[in-house]
């Protein structure tokens, strides 16, 4: 069994290696040739089925703020043809996959700013996948991957009748869980039903009995991709509510992958230190 001193020493070595890598990265970026790179503001967006979705892709450069001779090709992993292509000052759609015909576009007026984002119209479940933005310009370019996920979600509406508050949300997918809490964050008992359409979309109806006037309640509708949080306040016979949405940052597989890598690196480093000793 390793002693406490060995464990502390191993931890210090790992920290030194990590900080050294960060310093090297910062220096490399500082003294690079300032070539443009492709980045995204959201690598794991969640598209609302039937709604338009923006796939973010931006050329960035530490010196230049304007770009010329911009071209971009959007592709989807595992799919023949491309999603969208812009070259030589115009769209080039001869090899575009038919699934995206008439459903994709960029923002030509934004190209000079390095904005090569893709607008995907009327998102479908089959649109889910990994998209690659390959952008180039007179100042250089690069590639970035966007992992698009699809779901259906709507904000609930609230009604009040005989001290029972009912929330209705017409479109949710995947199937969500519903939780009511009071102002003290205590979980409340409610009656919830979900009706599934032929398209697999769920209509949520949830009723909370014995509510009190001048009280506030929180309704959370959540599935693995999206969570809506509604704050509902009763005033007399009326209900006023505010709803906001939050989204999972990354697929569960990736979330669990990174800690595993860190743990594996730490274990390997520790074993190497023991062998060398």
Automatic annotation (TrEMBL):
Keywords, ordered alphabetically: Disulfide bond, Glycoprotein, Immunoglobulin domain, Membrane, Signal, Transmembrane, Transmembrane helix
Gene3D superfamilies, per database record: Immunoglobulins
Cellular compartments per GO CC: external side of plasma membrane
Main location: membrane
UniProt-annotated location(s): Membrane
Molecular function per GO: signaling receptor binding
Domain (Ig-like) ranges: 50-149
Keyword rRNA-binding: no
Database matches in PROSITE patterns: IG_LIKE (PS50835)
Bilayer-spanning residue ranges: 7-31, 257-276
GO BP of this protein: regulation of cytokine production; regulation of leukocyte cell-cell adhesion; regulation of T cell activation; T cell receptor signaling pathway
One protein family per Pfam: V-set
Name the record gives this protein: V-set domain containing T cell activation inhibitor 1
Organism lineage: Eukaryota, Metazoa, Chordata, Craniata, Vertebrata
């Amino acid at each position: 069994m390793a002693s406490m001193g060995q464990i502390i020493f191993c931890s210090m070595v790992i920290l030194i290696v990590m900080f050294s890598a960060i310093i090297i990265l910062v220096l490399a970026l500082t003294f690079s040739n300032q070539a443009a790179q492709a980045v995204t503001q959201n690598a794991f967006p969640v598209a609302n089925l039937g709604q338009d979705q923006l796939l973010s892709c931006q050329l960035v450069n530490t010196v230049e703020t304007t770009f010329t001779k911009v071209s971009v090709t959007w592709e989807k992993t595992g799919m023949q043809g491309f999603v969208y292509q812009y070259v030589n000052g115009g769209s080039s759609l001869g090899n575009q996959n038919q699934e995206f015909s008439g459903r994709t576009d960029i923002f030509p007026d934004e190209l000079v700013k390095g904005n090569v984002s893709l607008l995907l119209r009327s998102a479908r479940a089959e649109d889910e996948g990994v998209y690659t933005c390959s952008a180039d310009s007179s100042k250089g370019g690069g590639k970035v991957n966007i992992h698009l996920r699809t779901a259906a979600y709507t904000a609930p509406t609230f009604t009040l009748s005989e001290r029972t508050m009912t929330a209705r949300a017409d479109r949710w997918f995947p199937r969500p869980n519903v939780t009511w809490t009071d102002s003290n964050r205590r979980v409340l008992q409610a009656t919830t039903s979900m009706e599934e359409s032929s398209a697999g979309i769920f209509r949520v109806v949830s009723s909370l009995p014995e509510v009190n006037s001048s009280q506030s309640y929180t309704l959370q509708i959540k599935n693995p991709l999206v969570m809506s949080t509604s704050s509902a306040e009763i005033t007399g016979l009326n209900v006023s509510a505010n709803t906001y949405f939050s989204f999972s940052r990354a697929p569960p597989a990736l979330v669990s992958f990174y800690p595993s890598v860190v743990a594996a690196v730490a274990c390997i480093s520790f074993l190497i230190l023991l062998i060398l000793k």
